[in-house]
Design goal:
The chain has 325 residues and is α/β, with parallel strands linked by helices. It contains 11 helices and 12 strands. The protein is 38% helix and 16% strand. Strands 1, 2, 3, 4, 5, 6, 7, 8, 9 and 12 form a 10-stranded parallel β-sheet that branches. Strands 10-11 form a two-stranded antiparallel sheet. Strand 8, helix 10 and strand 9 form a beta-alpha-beta unit. The termini are far apart.
Length: 325
């Protein structure tokens, strides 16, 4: 039987965008079969990395991201909180490790990192979490090269800085930071020797073509991200996207599978929006090549499945938490 991939287009004539479009739109059984082949070649198909995302500074962000509860431009009911103390964050990291997480990510609602006492506190958080033998990730907004270097020296494993959506659709979601700003931060992170965690958000009103253009933008990064979070929008009251309909389930599965094929060695993270997914949809995403989830009841400010729910799901699927290393 001939599949969509057995007669590829002429490689010289086919652009990156063409290839991604062809991958995504092939019959779903063929797409999932190819994604499984790639996944099994590079990863244990029965292991899922558990991660924990800790909100270390909440609200009052000057950015105008249309999806975000933490923006000062959006009239949400979120209560701002100052930068957390080191002891509180360290306690959360220890609890995360006890529940099987091997990566601990710290997020601060900043437009950009500013040198000074607060950055010094974050650096100490990184040092102490790294000492627990966890992978350490941060998402702090824009970074300058010298700041990325200091984070690397403190023991940071990875830095999360999403592109969010396609270059063409980006301006409909955010106007206070350019796409180029994001690319420059990613370049600074890579130059410092820190792994890049970079993905996007589905369900913000973008087209399928925009989603595939996001994948093309990720593929053009050098090096490509080692970690790719796929978020589904969680609509928040008071934000411009509060009434946006959910992502179609099959479109989500196609996006996960296409990401897996394009980025064979990356960790593909099924991130925000899992509380709105059935167990069956999550299982299908894991079958399509996702191999990481975020555990704990809250992802920054949006709800997330309880740890016990995730444990029960993995047990039902016969899957196990991925170990360090």
């Amino acid at each position: 039987m001939t599949t969509a991939l057995s007669n590829p287009l002429n490689a010289a004539a086919e652009t990156l965008h063409d290839r991604i479009d062809r991958l995504y739109h092939q019959p779903l059984p063929d797409l999932l079969f190819k994604a499984q082949q790639v996944h099994r070649e590079h990863h244990n198909p029965n292991a899922v990395q558990l991660c924990t995302l800790c909100n270390i500074k909440t609200g009052l962000c000057p950015e105008d991201c249309a999806y975000c509860s933490q923006s000062v431009h959006n009239k949400t009911e979120l209560e701002p909180q100052p930068l957390a103390d080191i002891e509180t964050v360290l306690a959360e990291a220890k609890a995360a490790k006890a529940h099987g997480s091997t990566r601990f990510c710290m997020g601060a609602a900043w437009r950009e990192v500013k040198d000074g006492a607060q950055f010094e506190r974050v650096l100490e958080m990184v040092r102490q979490v790294a000492a627990l033998e966890l992978e350490v990730c941060c998402t702090l907004g824009m970074l300058k090269p010298h700041q990325a270097k200091r984070l690397k020296e403190a023991g940071l494993t990875a830095y999360n800085h999403n592109l969010d959506t396609s270059p063409d659709y980006y301006g409909k979601v955010i106007t206070t930071r350019t796409y180029q700003d994001r690319l420059e931060t990613i370049q600074a992170v890579s130059a410092a020797g820190i792994s890049v965690c970079c993905g996007g958000i589905l369900g913000m009103g973008e087209s399928v073509s925009d989603r595939l253009a996001l994948l093309a933008a990720l593929a053009e990064l050098d090096p490509v991200p080692e970690s790719i979070p796929i978020n589904c929008l969680v609509p928040v009251a008071g934000t411009p996207l509060k009434d946006t309909p959910p992502v179609d389930a099959i479109e989500l599965v196609r996006m996960v599978a296409t990401t897996r094929i394009l980025f064979p060695q990356a960790i593909v993270r099924l991130s925000a929006g899992r509380l709105q997914m059935s167990d069956e949809l999550q299982a299908l995403c894991l079958l399509a090549g996702a191999n990481s989830i975020f555990t704990g009841p809250v992802l920054l400010t949006t709800p997330n499945p309880e740890t016990t729910q995730d444990e029960q799901l993995l047990q039902r699927l016969g899957m196990v938490p991925k170990e360090m290393g």
